[in-house]
Design goal:
Chain A: Belongs to the acyl-CoA dehydrogenase family. The complex is a heterodimer. Chain A is of the alpha+beta class. Helix content of chain A is about 45%, strand content about 15%. Chain B is built from 11 helices and 10 strands. The chains are: A alpha+beta, B alpha+beta. The structure holds flavin-adenine dinucleotide (FAD).
Chain lengths: ~400, ~375
């Protein structure tokens, strides 16, 4: 199968050309080799400073929506979505891209100072700097208003104390966007501030937390690191609002859809190779999942279009994220039907089909409904803001 | 549908007593330890060796299973109704061992009186057996893979994959199609011409590829799988369905505890209806599947044809085991993904165990065929 993604009537000719260019680059042998290398990494290795990011960065494609002076191409949300989609379809690991460009970069663009932008954005856009996100704590994930990392006043700045967990890539990162409590007002949502925390500081201790997925989480213990007003992103005590605004704005479902599509295409290809695609018992669920992903993509691209027209729709965005991520589980179960126990063999077994990608994806499967806002958070947004319930 | 009698006599059982005895072994305090026994590091491939403490603990539990008399056979072997109780508890503890395979092997071997002596040894806990029926992961046990026996039936050449505990058992029972019939062949795992390679699977357990290169067939030689085969497989599926229901209830119990312990938005997650109802629904499904397995077991012990029930119970149980274990990870949040959390152990095990005696799709195809055959027979009657 070549690809199930067809030309999109919503794209301009220039945008189509942009997609073609990105796609051709990602189809180059060096990229395919890099992606295959990651699939067969030793158990103690994980993707971080990949050359692919630098190759994309050299053309301004890692952050095409950013202004030229910050390393982008001055294009818009459509081109950003094209890069995200093509990277995921090509199997390029995207955690670093999501964290550094989509989250930290976007925060800095929207709320950062000029100095912060100049210091970090060009290096991030070149694929040379990794910026990570330190929101979640051992005792709070879904409910960030309960966060307890403290920013204690210290002269003209603060000292940060606390533990952040389940963040990704901090071991490889240079800087992190860290949420900490500057004011204890008794109202959880008030008094949270976002800081740029240098990760390679004496008071930052980072320890991997092994996960069943290939990439490990990190536990970051912050022990008295000093930060100043120059490190504050946005306004002091206003972090809660900016976290919610920005995460909703960035949510389109494009990245999740493309990962699900790559996975489903892999399963369909396996079904074709093994002859099972001719058997309705296997073909019917695959046809159903194909339909669902086509629907999910249509909804996700609608969200991109909304952003391009500066008409974001947080409820529909939540629907897009929820809808596409709900498809991972049935896709993975169907994969195990198509390949049977062969699908359970890992990359570290010579017999594993497709470099053990199915098995790795199976282990990764549950994260899609958890990361970037859990399914329940999405349903809450839809039920409350969308339907006036609860 | 007409119920055909397969075994002439009813097998006596006492499931309640069996359960009480098995609960002494698989008590809730011990289960978290049993769950982790024998887990190899990720990617250890065939370099993985079992920690001696794990091996010893596993062996202790295996001995207990024998001492409690769960392998002890009457004429027709241990009652399925008793063993579903044991299997359910094994599933909730995720205890991995050759026990259930050995039970099935004894049932299969009852097809031929030449194996009676071996069955007596199995019943006494003196011999363990691993089943070897797949050439690759797509193979379904109701269609055993081809087998090459030499003309005299003395040696076997070929390969079997996904053979559990191959190096640890006394014998491999290879099931395969030779010519027009399915045959049973016993081979010692350490016989000349047998090569074992540990497979690196998502469950990180004890699955092996076994290659036979003119490997000698063990005494008393190969025998026909016969008409007993589909029924013995169905009985194995009923036990396995109970195992999977146990796996699901273990995952549900773990998640319920997490919801009680974890607070978000100022109250325990357990107080949130959306989450509590999901576990409640899974508990209801699991209970229904277990009831199905128990009833099918009683019918099997009365000599009924349980092929359809075996396939159906197994795919329903596989579905709920996969879903409950995936929910367990989800309800634990990101911590459910961590190596330290048992939710992911349930999830990874369910990925393998759901297809152990046939993929759910393969089982559905088989069930549909049996259903159609049953109705066709009814029409003729
Ligand atoms: C792959 C991955 C990458 C991540 N990367 C980062 C990162 O880089 N930086 C970072 O800071 N964090 C990161 N996280 C953490 C992520 O943000 C949290 O996992 C998420 O916010 C959920 O929090 P939790 O895991 O503590 O689950 P909990 O909040 O404990 O929730 C447990 C379960 O209960 C549900 N739940 C919670 N509250 C309710 C409610 N009111 N109603 C109904 N259901 C509810 C949740 O949806 C979840 O299923 C990552 C997580 C994953 C899985």
């Amino acid at each position: 199968m070549s690809t199930t993604i067809e030309r999109d009537p919503r794209l301009t000719v220039a945008q189509e050309r942009f997609r073609d260019d990105v796609r051709s680059m990602l189809a180059e042998d060096r990229v395919r080799r890099a992606v295959d290398d990651v699939a067969v990494y030793r158990p103690d290795q994980e993707a971080a400073h990949l050359d692919v990011y630098r190759w994309l960065g050299a053309r301004g494609w890692l952050a095409p929506g950013w202004p030229v002076e910050y390393g982008g191409l001055g294009l818009g949300p459509v081109e950003s979505a094209i890069v995200t989609e093509e990277m995921a379809l090509a199997g390029v690991p995207d955690d670093v891209h999501v964290l550094s460009v989509d989250i930290v970069g976007s925060f800095l663009l929207l709320e950062g100072t000029e100095e912060q932008r100049r210091r970090h954005l060009p290096a991030i856009a070149r694929g040379e700097r990794i910026a990570t996100v330190l929101f979640t704590e051992p005792d709070c994930g879904s409910d960030l208003s309960a966060l307890t990392t403290r920013a204690e006043p210290d002269g003209d700045g603060w000292r940060l104390y606390g533990s952040k967990i389940f963040n990704m890539k901090s071991r490889f990162g240079d800087v992190a966007l860290c949420a900490a409590r500057t004011t204890d007002s008794g109202v959880g949502m008030h008094g949270i501030t976002l800081f740029l925390l240098p990760l390679r500081s004496a008071g930052v201790h980072i320890e991997p937390v092994p996960s069943m997925a290939n990439d490990r989480f990190d536990l970051v213990v912050i022990d008295g690191v000093r930060v100043t007003r120059a490190d504050v992103v946005g306004r002091v005590d206003d972090g809660w609002r900016s976290i919610n605004d920005l995460l909703q704005l960035e949510r389109t479902g494009i990245d999740f859809h493309a990962k699900a599509r790559r996975l489903l295409d892999l399963v369909i290809r396996r079904a074709a190779q093994t002859g099972r695609l001719d058997d309705p018992a296997y073909a019917l669920p695959l046809a159903e999942l194909d339909a669902r992903l086509t629907a999910g993509r249509a909804l996700s691209w609608q969200m991109v279009q909304n952003l391009a027209e500066a008409r974001p729709d947080p409820v529909a965005s939540a629907m897009a994220k929820w809808y596409v991520t709900e498809q991972f589980r049935p896709i993975l179960h169907t994969a195990m039907e198509v390949d049977g126990l062969d699908g359970a063999l890992s990359a570290w077994d010579a017999d594993a089909p497709g470099l053990g990608r199915l098995e790795a994806q199976y282990r990764l499967g549950p994260v899609h409904r958890l990361a970037s806002g859990t399914s329940e958070v999405m349903l809450y947004l839809i039920a409350t803001n969308g339907l006036g319930l609860l | 549908m007409t119920v055909t009698s397969i075994a002439p006599e009813t097998v006596r059982s006492d499931p309640e007593r069996t359960r009480r005895r098995a609960e002494e072994l698989f008590d809730p305090d011990l289960s978290p330890v049993l769950r982790r026994l024998g887990q190899r590091p990720r990617g250890a491939a065939d370099a993985a060796t079992l920690h001696p403490d794990d091996a010893a603990a596993r062996a202790d539990v295996a001995d207990m299973l024998v001492e409690l008399g769960f392998l002890a056979a009457g004429e027709a072997g241990p009652a399925v109704a008793d063993l579903v109780e044991v299997a359910e508890l094994i599933g909730s503890a995720l205890y991995q061992s050759p026990f259930l395979d050995t039970v099935t092997a004894a049932d299969l071997l009852a097809a031929d009186p030449r194996y009676d002596a071996l069955r007596t040894e199995i019943a006494a806990g003196e011999r363990t057996v691993a089943l070897a029926w797949r050439e690759d992961g797509r193979g379904e046990p109701h269609h055993p893979a081809p087998l090459r026996l030499d003309a005299a039936g003395r040696t076997v050449t070929g390969v079997r994959r996904f053979v559990a505990f191959a190096p640890d058992v006394d014998l491999l029972l290879v099931v395969g199609r030779a010519g027009v019939e399915d045959r049973l062949v016993l081979i010692a795992p350490d016989a000349p011409g047998v090569r074992l390679r540990r497979q690196d699977d998502i469950g990180r357990g004890d699955l092996y590829e076994v290659t036979f290169d003119a490997a000698a067939v063990a005494a008393p030689g190969s025998g026909p799988a016969g008409e007993r085969y589909p029924q013995a497989l169905a009985r194995a599926r009923i036990r396995h369905a109970a195992y999977l229901a146990g796996l699901a209830s273990g995952a549900i119990e773990l998640s319920a505890q997490r919801l009680r312990d974890r607070t978000a938005f100022g109250r325990p997650l357990a107080s949130m209806q959306a989450l509590a109802f999901r576990l409640a629904a899974l508990a209801a499904e699991t209970t229904a599947v277990l009831a199905f397995a128990r009833e099918a077991a009683q019918r099997a012990d009365r000599g009924a044809d349980v092929r359809l029930a075996g396939a159906q119970a197994a795919f329903l149980a596989a579905d709920v085991a996969r879903t409950a274990s995936a929910e367990a990870v989800h309800l634990h949040g990101a911590s459910g993904m961590t190596e330290g959390c048992d939710a992911q152990v349930f999830y990874r095990r369910a990925a393998v165990d759901a297809s152990w005696l046939g993929t759910p799709t393969g089982l559905r195809i088989e069930a549909a065929r049996l259903l159609a055959a049953g109705y066709a027979a009814e029409k003729r009657d």
